[in-house]
């Protein structure tokens, strides 16, 4: 009877086996359709090898009369917009000049000042004639020179006040014109730019249309150059697909065979339990007696080393992450096979189970 260090004997078992083979025979057309295929194949070959009838005209239409007339109108509109651009530019420059100028330098204001001055001179000349008439009448009625002078002074003041009111009104009108010009300038500027850009926009639209038509003409020319080859390819593909479909009108014979039996297999005994413990603990396993409790004797090896079962104490459970253990005690192994015992980094003894032996 073997111990924990002895390997179990090998075992021979009988395992069932199965083997399947298959083969396919030659594909032959279905007998009833063979005469039909022989008759139709020449017709198919003739039909699909004829030169295809292709449309060789251009698919891009010519410019219509309406389109050509519209282009002429576009040109006229562009010329008109160019003229309007100059007009708007002059108006814009005039309004900018008025908006930035001194109201006293306004041409209309200067003209009004001239009119006011001439009116003042006319009134002065008229007042002189009136004064002479008044002097004559004053001599007749005994009116003194002092009263006559006061009357003339009053008339002079009235003339000056009237002139000042007229000049103030003219200056206010000049300022109103300056403010109005300042408000109109941005809109006139936009209208000027729009009129200047209109010819370029029309030319761009016409150029884009011409470019699109040229691209369409080039694509159509490529189509005309390639359509013969593409049509021939389409013919061959269609005929190949048709022949392939006709070739599939047949049947095939499939032969299958199955054989069964048994084969012998030898299953080895495998390693001993103790060797399994040794391989599981690679290469040194914790085995210090300081980490064990509830130690119970199990057996003794031929070399005198005892085997135990135990429970790991708190520190041992922390290191090994286990609760129960099975094996040897490092202190005992150290006395018999010291080479199989080392001290770990944690300060406890560890055993190389593979080096213990039977």
Ordered list of secondary-structure elements with their pairings:
Elements lengths: L10 E14 L3 E2 L4 H16 L15 H36 L6 H35 L3 H103 L2 E2 L2 E14 L5 H8 L4 E2 L5 E9 L5 E7 L1 H7 L3 E4 L2 H7 L4 E3 L5 E3 L7
Antiparallel strand pairs: 1-4, 2-3, 5-10, 6-7, 7-8, 9-10
Radius of gyration from CA coordinates: 62 Å
Contiguous uncertain segments of 5+ residues: 11-15, 265-269, 278-282
Strand content: 15-25%
Major pleated sheet: 3 strands, antiparallel
Number of helices: 7
Taken from the alpha-carbon principal axes, the silhouette is flat
**Please, how many domains?**
2
By secondary-structure content and strand pairing, the structural class works out as alpha+beta
What's the N-to-C terminus distance? 15 Å
Residue-averaged pLDDT: 75
Task: Compute the number of strand runs.
Answer: 10
Q: Give the fraction of residues assigned to helices.
A: 55-70%
The succession of helices and strands, N to C, reads EEHHHHEEHEEEHEHEE
Sequence of strands across the biggest β-sheet: 5-10-9
Polypeptide structure, described:
By secondary structure, the chain is α+β, with helices and mostly antiparallel strands. The chain folds into 2 domains: 65-233; 273-355, no CATH class. It is built from 7 helices and 10 strands. The protein has a 3-stranded antiparallel beta sheet. A 3-stranded antiparallel beta sheet has the order 6-7-8. A two-stranded antiparallel ribbon has the order 1-4. Strand 6 (292-300) and strand 7 (306-312) form a beta hairpin. Helix 1 runs antiparallel to helix 4 and helix 2 runs antiparallel to helix 4 (145-247). The protein is flat, with a radius of gyration of 62 Å. It starts with 10 loop residues before the first strand and ends in a 7-residue tail after the last strand.
């Amino acid at each position: 009877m073997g111990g924990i260090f002895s390997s179990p004997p090998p075992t021979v078992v009988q395992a069932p086996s199965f083997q399947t083979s298959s083969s396919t025979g030659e594909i032959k057309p279905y007998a009833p359709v063979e005469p039909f295929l022989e008759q139709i194949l020449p017709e198919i070959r003739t039909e699909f090898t004829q030169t295809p009838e292709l449309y060789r005209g251009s698919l891009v239409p010519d410019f219509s009369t309406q389109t050509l007339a519209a282009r002429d109108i576009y040109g006229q509109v562009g010329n008109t917009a160019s003229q309007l651009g100059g007009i708007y530019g002059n108006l814009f420059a005039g309004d900018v000049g008025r908006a930035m100028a001194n109201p006293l330098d306004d041409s209309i204001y200067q003209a009004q000042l001239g009119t006011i001055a001439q009116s003042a001179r006319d009134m002065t000349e008229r007042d002189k004639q009136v004064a002479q008439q008044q002097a004559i009448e004053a001599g007749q009625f005994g009116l003194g020179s002092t009263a006559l002078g006061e009357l003339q002074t009053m008339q002079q003041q009235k003339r000056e006040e009237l002139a000042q009111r007229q000049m103030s009104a003219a200056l206010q009108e000049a300022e109103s014109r300056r403010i109005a010009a300042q408000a109109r300038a941005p809109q006139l500027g936009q209208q000027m730019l729009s009129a200047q850009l209109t010819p370029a926009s029309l030319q761009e639209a016409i150029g884009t249309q011409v470019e699109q038509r040229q691209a369409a003409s080039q694509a159509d020319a490529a189509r005309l150059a390639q359509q013969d080859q593409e049509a021939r390819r389409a013919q061959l593909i269609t005929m190949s697909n048709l022949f392939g479909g006709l070739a599939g009108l047949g049947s095939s014979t499939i032969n299958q065979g199955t054989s069964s039996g048994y084969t012998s297999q030898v299953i080895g005994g495998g390693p001993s339990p103790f060797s399994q413990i040794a391989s599981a603990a690679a290469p040194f396993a914790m085995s210090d007696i300081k980490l064990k409790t509830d130690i119970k004797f199990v057996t003794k090896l031929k070399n005198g080393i005892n085997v135990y079962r135990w429970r790991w104490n708190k520190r041992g459970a922390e290191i090994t992450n286990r609760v129960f253990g099975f094996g040897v005690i490092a202190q005992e192994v150290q006395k018999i096979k010291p080479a199989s015992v080392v001290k770990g980094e944690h300060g406890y003894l560890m055993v190389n189970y593979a080096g213990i032996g039977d």
